[in-house]
Amino acid sequence: MEHIIKNGIVYDPLNNIDGEQKDICIKDGKIVDSVSADANVTDASGQIIMPGGVDPHTHIAGAKVNVGRMIRPEDSKKDVVGRAPGQRGGSGFSVPSTFMTGYRYAQMGYTTAMEAAMPPLLARHTHEEFHDTPIIDHAAYPLFGNNWFVMQYLKEGDLDKTAAYASWLLRATKGYAIKIVNPAGTEAWAWGGNVHGIDDPAPYFDVTGGEIIKGLAEVNEMLGLPHPIHLHCNDLGHPGNYETTLKSFDIPKGIKANPITGNRDKVLYATHVQFHSYGGTNWRDFVSEAPKIADYVNKNDHIVIDVGQVTLDETTTMTADGPMEYDLHTLNGLKWANCDVELETGSGVVPFIYSGKAPVPSSQWAIGLELFLLVNDPEKICLTTDSPNAGPFTRYPRVMSWLMSNKYREDMIENHVHKWAQKKTSIATIDREYSFFEIAQISRATPAKVLGLSDTKGHLGVGADADIAIYPFNPETQDPSTDYMKLEEALTAASYVFKDGEIVVKDGKVVNIGLPGRCYWVNSIYDEELEKQIVGEVETMFKRYYSVNFANYAVQDEYLPRSTPVDGVIL
Amino acid sequence: MEIVKNVVCPFCGMLCDDIICKVEGDEIVGTLNACRIGHSKFVHAEGAERYKKPLIRKNGELVEVTMEEAIDKAATVLAESKRPLMYGWSCTDCDAQAVGVELAEEAKAIIDNTASVCHGPSVLALQDVGYPICTFGEVKNRADVVVYWGCNPMHAHPRNLSRLVFSRGFFRERGLADRTVIVVDPRKSDSSKLADIHLQLDYDKDYELLDAMRAVLLGNEILYDEVAGIPKETIYEAVDVLKNAKFGVLFFGMGITHSRGKHRNIDTAICLVTDLNDSAKFTLIPMRGHYNVTGFNQVCTWESGYPFCVDFATGSARYNPGETGSNDLLQNKETDGMMVVASDPGAHFPQKALERMAEIPVISIEPHRTPTTEMADIIIPPAIVGMEAEGTAYRMEGVPIRMRKVVDIGLLSDKEILERILTRVKEINASK
Ligand code: SF4
Ligand SMILES: [Zn+2]
User: Fold this and answer.
1) Using one digit for the tens of pLDDT, what is the confidence trace for A65-114?
2) Nearest CA in chain B to A94
3) What distance in Å separates the CA atoms of residue A301 and residue A392, rounded to the nearest whole number?
4) By CB count within 10 A, which of A212, A501, B76, B223 is most buried?
5) What is the pLDDT confidence band of residue B385, given thresholds at 50, 70 and 90?
6) What does the domain layout of chain A look like in residue ranges?
7) Do residue B303 and residue A66 have CB atoms under 8 angstroms apart?
């Protein structure tokens, strides 16, 4: 099947195309140089064309996501859609049901989204939900930062065994990256405690968060993984935590990036940094330290961050940072769910209301924007809301509009948020406005590259997957700085979205769900002999301490309708 | 004889996955590791009559029909009913349940599972106050305090104690000797015999006891000599054990979900567990009965946003337990056509609901002759998941495990049957 998209205004940062009028040709799901005269024509005159959006960090599938849905019927009731021809119904504002998740991403022109936290023992659950999430390509990051095997091998100083275990676990869970959440802290939470900072050891295992970050960062490059370690730092949400954040950022510095697939040059991906940029000692003297964090990112080249922008909504927080969620519950008194997962990790879920009337959420809103606006190079920062933690992904168009319009921000600061936003942060002093090119960077090019997927994702060059978004906004006649409401509408409802070369969205509505999304996972084998040995050790631990049989642990191929392995080292 | 290992038991919510089956031809003739009830499920020891062909009641008699006719009749009942109800789902796999949810959407039906008559109150309570749980391995490796409230695991979940409490865990090297077991049950049971502390409370006084324990935990004194029939000293002693737990777990069952107070009991129990985390580490696990009752609540939630009692009459999901539960609909005589999948309401529903079932067309997708099939107008027998078909199930605390196929008996799976019905309902709806 051939398509040609004519006359659109193209923003394609990876190919250095900044607002050029240009035709895009599609054949058999890929972008090509030219097509025959029989190709279907889509006219995009006066509209913006970007590669399909890539979300590097979201929570859309798996155990804690579903707990978020289950314990909050009040959230489901806020947003309900019915069955339509070829389309399933669903519900959920902050945590939409699976079908709705696929549709909503696609409607915004997003075609790839990564589940950022997968407990290995519950990996099958994540893949089951992926199965029911239409359109978008996806992957999941298994949790390593409080894993007993990792902690034990690192304690013994054995990086080779850690690497052999990690590559085995990535294959067994069909996972994509090494995710680290509050390293050592979630293990402490299994006894009701937490760690503070990067030098506080996990009980019994006696390794610190810092040692876990260091070890796994090295292992990540020994395995040649497409993505760097994906780090949720210690001390999330605590006033004064920026020091821990900066120390954590510094740990992998000096390690050399070694991806087998893709061409990232970073060795650290730090997530939802907004929650880690706080100064002060308590919520009274709390201040933004976003400028210091941004300064660090500006001066160092080994790191990419995402923001976790607060959107000022009632939402559902969910993370593998078990102790943090319990603290949040004691702070806001709302219902608390938790799930400690044997030998591996934990998690918690608590509803949260980020009200613009309240001082702290307003400051958090401003801190996120400070990070976006003070990090100079959009190749170092990705757009996320850590959906649904700081707000649902359906607010990305609003976040983009805040970034593109100082006027919009001024209106927020003057009329819609608490005065702490001005008092505790520098937001009111920053007038930078993002260009469409920069928006395409933080939502397409940068995430695709740091994920190691920029051969086929995040750009519109020949050979890329034909995942394309067309937005009804004319940059030649409309000014995003003043027409920010129109911009937000346009980004919410793409006029066309192509996925694998097929039109899946037209005029903001899903018209076709196309193929199932690809599930990316890393195929890496680190030293076959050593792997045999560690699998033997793992099996022994299973017999004694797991509640599931080793033979029933690995995710079977049946769960991946469109399995897409990506190579790491194969030794 | 063939030996198949690592088989998953399709009976109770423990979902034991270490069963060894001895197979001869298409028959399982023996098992290792299974408990008594799991074993009898595998070897069909209960002797129930097994259906192999679809049946339709004609002039009061069940007669064999082709699969096509049975599928067509079933689809017609769903498509023609004004308030179709699709109930059951707890003894089949998640793929079948997922087709069920789509079928409910297509037929504008109400879909509901057995939770509505067992752990429904737990679901309502977790929606009120939260759900702090852990996986089984955490209990085994860490728990020094284990509470069973309103349940008798020795009988209903026979391997719960042996797998999680008697067994040695990483931080509990001596197994049972390293743990304090508390049983809260008005009766003496085989489980209470094992307890270090048996709180033998008065019937229907769970709420009072829970409330007193929370009060003590928060630093208050009990003003009466006893609460719920338990001397206050014993309550102080029990709370002392709980709040000093290094890692505690509360297993709770139907004895508390169905005693007076229902979901209010569970509300308070969850709050007690939450409060305990101030001084201890404490978690809970609902003792779910059928092996995949949890799976239905998972699937229904990720597809529709709600765990059970979902009403698609308006074309989109609506959730209002008390109005959209199976018993509400049957007893109010709203339901005018019912499909039962993988469960037996005929044996468990109250009389008034059964009276309604007798008045309306009932479809039963069910391998065995049961009180429900006795009332059914259409019976479609599937392969049994976990023995004769593969599929996913979720253990009571949410760990998903792939059920194995051990023998092939050449019947369609629940999923395949439901897919065919769905296709037919779509055709009927398209022609309307
Ligand atoms: S405890 Fe339950 S799952 Fe385990 S063997 Fe017995 S019946 Fe089967
Ligand atoms: Zn996250």
Assistant:
1) 999 999 999 999 999 999 998 899 999 999 999 999 999 999 999 999 99
2) B305
3) 30
4) A212
5) very high
6) 1-138+457-520
7) no
Give B156→chain A minimum CA distance, Å: 19
pLDDT tens digits, A465-498: 999 999 999 999 999 999 999 999 999 999 999 9
Ranges assigned E (strand) in B241-281: 248-252
Query: Does the beta carbon of B158 lie inside 6 Å of ligand 1?
Result: yes
Query: Any bridge partners for residue B85, and if so which?
Result: B110, B338
Please work out whether the CB of residue B38 comes within 6 Å of at least one atom of ligand 1: yes
Q: Do A82 and B316 touch (CB under 8 A)?
A: yes
Which tokens hold the place of B152? 């008798």
Q: Which residues of B touch A83 (CB under 8 A)?
A: 105-106, 312, 315-316
How far is Cα A117 from Cα A347, in angstroms, rounded to an integer? 10
Distance CA A225, CA A296 (A): 25
What confidence tens digit (pLDDT) does each residue in A348-367 have? 999 999 999 999 999 999 99
Cα dihedral B5/B11/B16/B21 (nearest 10): -20
CA angle (A391 as vertex; A390, A397 as ends), nearest 5 = 125
Class of the CATH domain delimited by A1-138+457-520 = mainly beta
Say what the pTM is. 0.98
Distances (CA, A) of A336 to B129, B274, B345: 7, 8, 33
User: A-B interface: how many C-beta pairs under 8 angstroms?
Assistant: 190
Q: Give the Cα separation of B331 and A56 in Å (integer).
A: 50
Average pLDDT, chain B: 96
Nearest residue, CB atoms, A80 vs list B128, B317, B390: B317
- d(C-alpha B290, C-alpha A184), whole Å: 36
DSSP H or E segment with residue B98: helix B94-107
A173: pLDDT strictly greater than 80: yes
Instruction: With CB atoms and an 8 Å threshold, state whether B102 touches A88.
Output: yes
DSSP B164: I
**A154-168, A190-204, B34-48: least confidently modelled range:** B34-48
User: What is the model's pLDDT at position B46?
Assistant: 65
Atom of ligand 1 at shortest range from CA of B158: 1
Residue of A316, A317, A324, A547 best to disrupt the B interface, most CBs of B under 10 A: A547
Question: CA separation (Å) from B280 to A98, A192, A195?
Answer: 36, 6, 16
Residue among B131, B173, B139, B180 nearest B157 (CA) = B139
pLDDT tens track for A417-426: 999 999 999 9
Q: How far apart are the first and last CA of chain A?
A: 39
Hey, which bits of A143-245 come out as E strands?
A: 179-181, 229-232
Tokens 């009692």 belong to which residue?
Answer: B309
Using a 10 angstrom Cβ sphere, with 0-12 exposed, 13-18 middle and 19 or more buried, the burial of residue B36 is exposed
* Interface contact A63-B138, CB threshold 8 A: no
Interface predicted TM-score (ipTM): 0.97
Taking the CA of B164 as reference, the closest ligand is 1
Q: Which residue of B has its CA nearest to A78?
A: B305
Q: Report the C-alpha gap between A386 and A458 in whole angstroms.
A: 19
Contacts of B298 in chain A (CB under 8 A): 66, 70, 125
